[in-house]
Amino acid sequence: xxxxxxxxxxxxxxxxxxxxxxxxxxxxxxxxxxxxxxxxxxxxxxxxxxxxxxxxxxxxxxxxxxxxxxxxxxxxxxxxxxxxxxxxxxxxxxxxxxxxxxxxxxxxxxxxxxxxxxxxxxxxxxxxxxxxxxxxxxxxxxxxxxxxxxxxxxxxxxxxxxxxxxxxxxxxxxxxxxxxxxxxxxxxxxxxxxxxxxxxxxxxxxxxxxxxxxxxxxxxxxxxxxxxxxxxxxxxxxxxxxxxxxxxxxxxxxxxxxxxxxxxxxxxxxxxxxxxxxxxxxxxxxxxxxxxxxxxxxxxxxxx
Length: 304
Prior knowledge:
Elements: H1 2-9, H2 30-93, H3 104-107, H4 114-127, H5 129-141, H6 147-161, H7 167-183, H8 196-203, H9 214-228, H10 235-243, H11 249-253, H12 262-298
Helix pairs in contact: 2-9, 5-6, 6-7, 6-12, 7-12
């Protein structure tokens, strides 16, 4: 065993065997080149086919951008109207009539609850009543109304300033009817408690023809038609009128509800301001229409 092991150790080392490795043959796929060419050709056809569609899309995009730019002023106006609507809803929700004298600057703030709105609006009118009263008086003085109407309105303003809050609805609502009877009904002694003719005449005016324009005027008119001259035919309606700080004509004149608050007094004054100015505008337009008819009758050329 030992001898055999020694012989193995003395055996010459085996040389590393190197096998010649020839270059591997190049395998060619001629069909791949043809397929690639076909794919490129198809892609080019597709690009040419969609190019007009892409051009139309780009042109449409440019026109939409131009349209949006031209509509920007209208979008701004729409946002303003929406904000006016929101502010008027806050005022009405707190029991105040929307009016050009309302403190809209305060209502621009967000997250206002109705209790806060009610308090702030009341404080605003109380703190600024001297200026507001003067402005309201000047507006009515400029109207085409008789002196009795102007004096009556001025007395209501003074009574409110003195804290006599019962006076405004009881004084102004009958005065509105007197003026409407003279100017709208021609002095006729017709039944006119609901002021249907006056309401219809105001409905024929455009917002631009009224001092209260835009959302404020439209919502004021809605309150006029739905509440101010609503007949109180049952106890339920009387109770609803008493809970509303905007005085109802029938409730005030017939003693069904006693309106004694600062808020109801101001609301009655704002109602009178709106209606008396409306009557003045209607009177002016009727006179203008009569003048046109008269001129057409007197001018032979106008009938040619």
